[in-house]
Protein 1
Amino acid sequence: MISFILTTKRLLKALIRAFKQPLFISLFTTLFFILLSGTMFYTKVEGWSILDAIYFCVVSLIPSGVDTSLTPTTNLGKVFTMFYLAVGVGVMFLTLLTLGKTMIKSTDEPTTDLKKRRSSK
């Protein structure tokens, strides 16, 4: 449990730092609108509930292998899903990559500061 709390704390610090970067802000905003458009589409065209649509939109962009048991049934839904996944997976990947880099940078900084202090003595 302590490990989970420490990891969550590190993730939140990285998120705060990431939101100070213009690249992350634009990626996060783009990802938000991709998820919003997917949710609206699946709610209107496929007739899914909002929760089902959000769940499908998020889980399908994360490489988790989770079976959602939700599949588009209309031809328009299938075509939309192909484009949605082609665009969304790339944006999700870049967003997670940027967040990961920020997380690694923030954990490297204390050791870098320590090395600087030791070398100055």
Protein 2
Amino acid sequence: MLTLYAGSMIMLAACNTVEGAGKDIESAGDSIADTANDAKD
């Protein structure tokens, strides 16, 4: 039972890390798109 609990905690932490990385990448993409739009205008 302890192994199952520990595995669940590791998976939960990994999901949160991937979600955070996704948000960072999305933010960087938005910034690049804004810069490109400003340069086009």
